[in-house]
């Protein structure tokens, strides 16, 4: 096992030279990363096919394209982000100005998950580079082909003392977390997120935790059902449902349930064909453990659609489970697979109560044409981010910070939020030097003081 203490020390030494801070070095590094992705595009897509059976179209759009857009957006805006920001100074502090200086944290540790093994590893790295940091990247051990190409791509283009990739099992992550880093960025489950946060607390290291949770999707009785069916099918079954912001369960108004489920069935066939088991591009479940966990949920409720499995291929057909209750096992944990439980409601208040009594979700989706309904749900339900009359799309926008709240995570990234995440904003007050400038005690406060020449309040 590599000496991770030595690796962290070499990166801290490299960072202290100041070479990573100038804008030109950051932009050159982002361009180098972009060129490395383009050069290795075929190998990345082949690795995603091997690890998750992702088609080239899905692999490119959901993994490579999003990272390239992050890089391009950072290159276009980095100069403005790095500029010191002049802000107001209180009137009682005379002859002074106030400035906020963005500065890199130093050495960042990025721990990535397996479900989008390229995007969720490299996208945070874009923020770390833009912020002027060094970085150690730990890709998932469950996607070895993608982890291998990431290692090759980084090692061929960057010195290890600047950006390093460390592969390995869970013991590797544990060993890395024992070292002192200046920032930790973790994407994964809530349970592991707690372990990461505990390890970070030993060094008082700031963290971003991109976690998950059960993300509700509401279809009200005034929704455009054709649009809702197509967008929910696409959002739920992308990557075989192994998406942290996938609609986890469906809340459907009783008046439109039967009509909507029929349209949803048609939408699934439109995406994947009449016999999905014969579709060579439908992604597989990542491993046997997750396959068995998901297969156990198929006994819940009544299957309205799907339900076929093939253990030899780790295949689970897109499945709709009807007649589900809030107490069923499938409703007790994040599904993270191609299974959609359906719960019927008559009154919005009853489902708002159920949602808000549970951990705050990472995502929240509402299909309704009523602004009153939309506003009511947005004002009463706390969640990381979401969409009205769409699914997933909010996380693709560089203008919208992406992250969770409560048990679904803390901190955010994408676009400027990625730069801000990996940047400390240092506040500085500048004041002109004056003869006899000093402090004097405030008679009224006793312990307090005011700057010389400022009136005390008696």
From TrEMBL:
Sequence similarity: Belongs to the aldehyde dehydrogenase family.
Residues annotated as the enzyme's active site: 210
InterPro entries xref list: Ald_DH/histidinol_DH, Ald_DH_C, Ald_DH_CS_CYS, Ald_DH_CS_GLU, Ald_DH_N, Aldehyde_DH_dom, Aldehyde_DH_NAD(P)
Pfam families: Aldedh
Record carries keyword Cell cycle: no
Domain Aldehyde dehydrogenase residue range list: 15-428
Entry keyword annotation includes Oxidoreductase: yes
Superkingdom: Bacteria
Protein name listed in UniProt: Aldehyde dehydrogenase
UniProt keywords, alphabetically: Oxidoreductase
């Amino acid at each position: 096992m590599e000496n991770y203490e030595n690796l962290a020390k070499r990166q801290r030494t490299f960072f202290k030279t100041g070479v990573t801070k100038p804008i030109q070095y950051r932009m050159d590094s982002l361009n180098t990363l972009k060129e490395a992705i383009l050069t290795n595009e075929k190998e990345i897509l082949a690795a995603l096919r091997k690890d998750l059976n992702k088609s080239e179209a899905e692999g490119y759009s959901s993994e490579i394209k999003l990272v390239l857009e992050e890089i391009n957006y950072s290159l276009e805006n980095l100069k403005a982000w790095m500029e010191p920001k002049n802000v107001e100074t209180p009137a009682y502090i005379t002859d002074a100005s106030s400035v906020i200086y963005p500065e890199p944290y130093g050495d960042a540790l990025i721990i990535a998950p397996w479900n989008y093994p390229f995007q969720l590893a490299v996208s945070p790295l874009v923020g770390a580079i833009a912020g002027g940091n060094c970085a150690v990247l730990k890709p998932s051990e469950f996607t070895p082909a993608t982890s291998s190409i990431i290692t090759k791509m980084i090692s061929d283009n960057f010195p290890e003392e600047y950006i390093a990739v460390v592969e390995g099992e869970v013991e590797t992550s544990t060993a890395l977390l024992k070292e002192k880093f200046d920032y930790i960025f973790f994407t994964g489950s809530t349970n592991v997120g707690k372990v990461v946060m505990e390890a970070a607390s030993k060094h008082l290291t700031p963290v971003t935790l991109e976690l998950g949770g059960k993300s509700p999707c509401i279809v009200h009785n005034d929704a455009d059902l054709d649009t809702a069916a197509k967008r929910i099918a696409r959002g739920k079954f992308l990557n075989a449902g192994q998406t942290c912001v996938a609609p986890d369960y469906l809340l459907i108004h009783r008046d439109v349930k039967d009509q909507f489920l029929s349209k949803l069935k048609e939408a699934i066939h439109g995406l994947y064909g009449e016999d999905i088991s014969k579709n060579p591009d439908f992604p597989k479940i990542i491993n046997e453990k997750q396959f068995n966990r998901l297969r156990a949920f198929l006994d819940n409720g009544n299957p309205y659609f799907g339900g076929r499995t093939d253990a030899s291929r780790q295949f689970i057909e897109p499945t709709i489970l009807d007649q589900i209750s809030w107490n069923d096992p499938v409703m007790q944990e994040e599904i993270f697979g191609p299974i959609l439980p359906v719960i019927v409601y008559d009154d919005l208040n009853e489902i708002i109560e159920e949602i808000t009594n549970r951990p705050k979700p990472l995502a929240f989706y509402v299909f309704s044409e009523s602004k009153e309904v939309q506003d009511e749900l947005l004002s009463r339900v706390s969640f990381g981010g979401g969409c009205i009359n769409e699914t997933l799309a909010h996380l693709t926008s560089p203008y919208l910070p992406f992250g969770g709240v409560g048990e679904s995570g803390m901190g955010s990234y994408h676009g400027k939020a990625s730069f801000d995440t990996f940047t400390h904003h240092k506040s500085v007050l500048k004041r002109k030097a004056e003869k006899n400038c000093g402090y004097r005690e405030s008679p009224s406060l006793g312990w307090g003081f005011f700057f010389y020449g400022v009136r005390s309040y008696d």
